[in-house]
Specification:
The chain has 17 helices and seven strands. It has helices spanning about 1-10, 15-30, 60-70, 85-95, 140-165, 170-175, 185-200, 205-215, 225-235, 250-260, 275-280, 280-290, 310-325, 355-375, 385-390, 390-405, 425-430; strands spanning about 40-45, 75-80, 100-110, 125-130, 265-270, 295-300, 330. The model has no long low-confidence stretch (mean pLDDT about 95).
């Protein structure tokens, strides 16, 4: 029964997902499933099937697994859409899981027009985030992001179709059914091409010969083949790739303006510190800060090798130090948008253990922001927050304290809050 309901959590029908989640919660209440007390692990950067999750997880499924694993705080992030927001926040409330929602896209940073930042091979282009959204925004900027992403994916498919003929995709028939709400990505295309090849070449030997001719290799079907399709046809040097430039993506400043208008936190993202842009760390932080960024996102697992002291580890510690100096909360997670991504980082390793308190602090800050912003518009960068906490260190201390003390099942203790409420009054309601 448990396995059946967990599988149902990934169906595209939202009512079926909710039915499964409620059934699993009832099983936990009746003692048929034992849910652990929250520990110290966190994952605030997990993609869902509304953009692409390598395991097919819906927002409800990730929330359920986070609660089963005893995560202290959990967060989802999707590319160019906020389609999973209400579902994930509701699942967090039902499961008594501290939850937050983010959005990721790519932006253009004119100050780095000649330097690669964190989008490999693409000078001036950066992955960028808004963290702590609390409503599904109805905003022209978000609509434009979604439409531009859809057009890019369709253009890639059209170019790759010519190269992979006779394995050609009908976008509406072969790709869109792989998504719950039409937000297809390159990873959906790779899955669709693998399926189409199986239909065009049902004989495995003939299919392997086709892939070897087109891609230069024919790895086993699944993640390796899909990654090769993407690398050889959709990334730099592939027929489906078009080098982005100044007009390909919105300016970082424009995306930050949209994020702030939605009550969320503009967030700089970090790859590994090896690019020319990320080596100019002070400049990168200052440019981001000047356009409104106030937090940093890191994917720890790709920034170290257990037991190895190398450049990656040094870069990781340096960016953490720089973020701490600027009082940027740091958010971490594992992405889960490629096969092999972990469910949660190995925080017990010698490399990550010293950083875990900093990462937990950032998670609590974002959770507190999410609750206060959703309930009363008193989020981390709200006018109310800036009035009471003109310095980032005092702001961080307050929101971290709220995030640590508040329990999802006890958020009602806050009651109704208005602009006149004091920080001390909010803390007294939790105490």
């Amino acid at each position: 029964m448990i396995e059946r309901f967990e599988k149902q959590l990934d169906e595209f029908d939202a009512s079926r997902r909710r039915e499964a989640l409620l059934a699993l919660i009832e099983a936990a209440r009746s003692g048929r499933i034992v849910l652990p007390a929250p520990g110290g692990a966190i994952n605030l950067h997990a993609h869902t099937f509304f953009s692409y999750n390598a395991y097919g997880y819906s927002p409800s499924h990730f929330a359920w697994l986070a609660r089963k694993a005893g995560l202290e705080v959990a967060g989802i992030v999707d590319f160019d859409v906020l389609d999973g927001l209400e579902e994930f926040l509701e699942a967090g409330r039902l499961l008594e899981l501290k939850a937050c929602v983010s959005l990721e896209s790519r932006v253009y940073v004119p100050e780095f027009a000649t330097r690669v930042i964190n989008s490999p091979g693409e000078p001036g282009i950066a992955y960028h985030m808004g963290v702590g959204f609390t409503r599904e925004a109805r905003h022209p900027f978000l609509d434009a992001m979604r439409q531009a992403a859809a057009q890019r994916t369709q253009d890639v498919a059209r170019r790759v179709n010519t190269f992979l003929s006779p394995v050609e995709l009908d976008f509406a028939r072969d790709v869109l059914p792989l998504t719950p709400k039409g937000n297809a990505t390159e990873r959906h295309l790779c899955e669709a091409y693998q399926r189409k090849a199986a239909a065009v070449f049902p004989d495995p030997a003939a299919r392997a010969s086709f892939w070897k001719q087109k891609l230069g290799d024919a790895p086993p079907e699944g993640a390796k083949l899909q990654n090769l399709i993407r690398a050889r046809t959709m990334k730099q040097g592939g027929v489906g790739y078009v080098q982005p430039g100044a007009g390909s993506f919105p300016l970082m400043a424009d995306m930050n303006r949209f994020i702030l208008e939605c009550g969320a936190i503009p967030t700089l993202t970090w790859l590994d510190g090896t690019s020319a842009g990320e080596r100019a760390l002070d400049e990168l932080f200052e440019v981001a800060l000047a356009s409104g960024a106030a937090a940093l996102n890191i994917i720890p697992d790709r920034n170290y090798t257990p037991g190895v002291k190398d450049e990656k580890v040094r870069n990781l510690y340096e960016v953490v130090e720089q973020a701490e100096k600027r009082q940027f909360p740091i958010l971490v997670g594992t992405e889960m948008n490629a096969p092999g991504n972990k469910f949660v980082d190995s925080f017990e390793t010698a490399e990550l253990a010293p950083l875990l308190p900093i990462f937990r602090k950032g998670a609590h800050i974002v959770y507190a922001h999410s609750v206060l912003q959703r309930r009363a518009g008193l989020g981390y960068l709200s006018p109310w927050s800036r009035k009471w906490f003109p310095s980032p260190d005092a702001r961080n201390e307050f929101y971290e304290k709220i995030g640590r003390r508040l329990r999802p099942g006890g958020e009602s203790c806050l009651g109704s809050l208005g602009e006149e409420v004091t920080p001390e009054a909010i803390l007294s309601r939790i105490d």
